[in-house]
Amino acid sequence: MESDTVPSEHQEEEYVLLDLDSVYTQLQIPPNAPYVLSGLDTMQPVLILDDKFKLIGQWDETIGTCLLFKEEVASPVVHEETGPSEANLFAGKCIVDQNQSPSKQVKPLGCAYRILKFRLAPDFDSPSTVSAQTQQVKL
């Protein structure tokens, strides 16, 4: 007797590394620029950065496992006076070193098995191309 199986509603997360190395030197991408990433289920996803730059992606498998980490600001180290001492002036008090610089803590986030490498869309004029064309027109 065969039974119909209902797919579980559990969705597995998959991390993908976005590689912008080939276009980073050509573009002035502001920090925290808004972006739209579409077509992740296609062979050539599209990334639009800051409503100005259109990039075309190409999937690439990683060699081995690419580990991903997230960085968090760690709470300051607190020293509490412990142990018996007749001259313990700080009993029950916590001491925080004010000269201590804020530290960061790195925690594992996941693994990526695929890389999405981006290049400029063929119909995109880079700022250097546009300025060169403008100079030619002025001459």
Automatic annotation (TrEMBL):
<protein>
    <recommendedName>
        <fullName>Transcription factor TFIIIC triple barrel domain-containing protein</fullName>
    </recommendedName>
</protein>
<dbReference type="GO" id="GO:0000127">
    <property type="term" value="C:transcription factor TFIIIC complex"/>
</dbReference>
<dbReference type="InterPro" id="IPR019481">
    <property type="entry name" value="TFIIIC_triple_barrel"/>
</dbReference>
<dbReference type="InterPro" id="IPR042771">
    <property type="entry name" value="GTF3C6-like"/>
</dbReference>
<dbReference type="GO" id="GO:0006383">
    <property type="term" value="P:transcription by RNA polymerase III"/>
</dbReference>
<feature type="domain" description="Transcription factor TFIIIC triple barrel">
    <location>
        <begin position="11"/>
        <end position="119"/>
    </location>
</feature>
<dbReference type="Pfam" id="PF10419">
    <property type="entry name" value="TFIIIC_sub6"/>
</dbReference>
